[in-house]
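Narrative of accomplishments. A recurring question from our advisory board has been how the design workflow behaves on a single, concrete structure rather than in aggregate. To address it, we present the structure tokens for one chain from the evaluation set, followed by the sequence designed for it. No filtering or post-editing was applied between the two.
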């Protein structure tokens, strides 16, 4: 199997992914409560601009504007009959931008959670989850993505349903969970548990890791948790640009480009192969991350104290994998946020 994503993964020491989708689209005029996926058809120039911002900043790959592209999510906007159309359109716009980049840039088809809780805790069956993920995957495949990318997952059952659906679509894939409650996902998954889960899946992902969460420090602790399991699979780190704060009625992320550059280098040193940003991450952040990765040599894996010193305190005392409490310290030295 050969495609741009696999070529980049095999040939480069580290890959820079993209930043935020929602943050950038809100800056372009998207209103809270609107479905971003509708813009793939209604505002294609703005979606091209979203993708182009990542490419111009030096990203090796970017995710499509299809995070909420399942039937269950689009049903909230009376667009459940448009799954294939909207996902295909988002992928085609990405393919158009990537193919004009003048260098190899991969297009990853973003697949977010269904928004429903799976059995036995909730009502969503495995079969229906697979069906929804498969329908979305086929639309993304038709639009020309290089790889499918399920993200912000919290339940292992949903991760497994996506893996099965992607096998039906005959597409390579990557997957990330969001760790934000004492080092665990909302459904209690730890970094060690995810590292084991991906090894037990028949249709294993090319890369796995974490996205979103609570901030740069916490996600690096999670990445260290993945690496500690001895995995040989590529690790993904897509952390938020600092901590969200309400400013004048809007959510603002306090991470500066300088801080995100330090985060990117520390993510690489912690064991991540694919490094990007999530909420709040803008092209300026990505440019700083690109420069830092290109100019700073690879170093030793950082100690937790070094992460705190550089990026700020952890949001919880433990990463959730054991009873040992990680140090939680106030930020010292220069305040970059």
């Amino acid at each position: 199997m050969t495609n741009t994503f696999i070529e980049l993964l095999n040939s480069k020491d580290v890959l820079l992914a993209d930043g935020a989708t929602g943050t950038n689209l809100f800056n372009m005029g998207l209103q809270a409560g609107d479905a971003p996926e509708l813009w793939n058809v209604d505002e294609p120039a703005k979606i091209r601009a979203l993708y182009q911002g990542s490419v111009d900043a030096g990203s090796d790959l970017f995710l499509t504007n299809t995070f909420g592209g399942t039937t269950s999510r689009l049903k909230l906007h009376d667009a459940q009959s448009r799954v294939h159309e909207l996902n295909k359109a988002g992928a085609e716009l990405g393919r158009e931008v990537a193919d004009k980049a003048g260098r190899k840039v991969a297009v990853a088809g973003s697949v977010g959670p269904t928004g429903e809780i799976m059995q036995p805790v909730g009502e969503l069956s495995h079969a229906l989850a697979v069906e929804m993920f498969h329908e979305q995957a086929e639309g993304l495949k038709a639009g020309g993505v290089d790889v499918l990318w399920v993200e912000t997952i919290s339940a292992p059952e949903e991760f497994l349903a996506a893996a099965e659906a992607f096998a039906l679509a005959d597409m390579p894939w990557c997957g990330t969970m969001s760790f934000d409650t004492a080092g665990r996902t909302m459904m209690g998954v730890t970094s060690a548990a995810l590292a084991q889960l991906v090894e037990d899946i028949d249709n294993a992902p090319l890369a796995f890791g974490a996205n979103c969460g609570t901030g740069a420090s916490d996600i690096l602790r999670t990445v260290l948790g993945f690496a500690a399991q001895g995995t040989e699979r590529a690790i993904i780190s897509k952390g938020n640009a600092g901590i969200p704060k309400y400013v004048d009625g809007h959510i603002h992320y306090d991470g500066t480009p300088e801080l995100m550059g330090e985060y990117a280098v520390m993510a690489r040193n912690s064991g991540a192969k694919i490094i990007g940003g999530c909420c709040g991450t803008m092209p300026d952040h990505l440019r700083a991350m690109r420069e830092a990765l290109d100019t700073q040599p690879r170093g030793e894996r950082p100690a937790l104290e070094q992460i705190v010193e550089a990026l700020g305190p952890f949001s919880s005392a433990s990463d959730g994998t054991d009873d040992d409490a990680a140090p939680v310290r106030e930020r010292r030295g220069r305040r970059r946020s």
